[in-house]
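Action item from last meeting closed. Structure (175 res):
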């Protein structure tokens, strides 16, 4: 079975959007090659790490650290506006100006958490999740899997796989 990734023709870090005309389905190998070409053409570190990660040349932890480093270095008062298109930059500035001053304060966050617990909001969330099938059935990332352990290690396997000798169903938590 071939696995396909959605690739942004114009990457989001360069102002690309999630619009359908900016997305293309590529195999993992094609996706890695696309980011290699973008890196060679534009020299953006985001494309370098995407290429290396997709090609399995570097691990997820190294990618996370490097992208965090990039984000920290490049973000200012308005975030990463330097790599955005003029339209995206304008929308970002308008959105940030429209927010009240105390938008991300602990008080505001507490208020939002409290609102999210109201029966009306809970019912609305359940209804929306049911409509879109959020985390239900095959859309659940754990669907069709279970944990097995040998008493020391635990791994998750697909339900169609047989349990290897010396392993049994369950999970051994590390302390």
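Sequence:
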């Amino acid at each position: 079975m071939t696995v396909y990734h959605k690739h942004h023709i114009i990457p989001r870090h360069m102002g690309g959007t999630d619009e359908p005309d900016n997305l293309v389905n590529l195999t993992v190998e094609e996706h890695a090659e696309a980011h290699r070409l973008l890196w060679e053409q534009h020299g953006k570190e985001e494309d370098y790490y995407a290429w290396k990660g997709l090609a399995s040349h570097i691990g997820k932890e190294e990618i996370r650290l490097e992208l965090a480093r990039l984000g920290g270095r490049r973000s200012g008062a308005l975030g990463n506006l330097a790599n955005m298109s003029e339209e995206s930059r304008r929308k970002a500035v308008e959105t940030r100006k429209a927010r009240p001053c105390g938008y991300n304060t602990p008080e505001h966050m507490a208020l939002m958490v409290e609102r999210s617990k109201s029966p009306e909001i809970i019912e609305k969330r359940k209804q929306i999740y049911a409509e879109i099938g959020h985390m239900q059935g095959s859309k659940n990332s754990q669907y069709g899997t279970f944990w097995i352990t040998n008493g020391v290690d635990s791994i998750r396997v697909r339900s169609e796989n047989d349990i290897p000798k010396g392993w049994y169903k369950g999970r051994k938590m590390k302390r």
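Note appended to the action item: The beta strands are 4-8, 23-27, 145-149, 154-158, 168-169.
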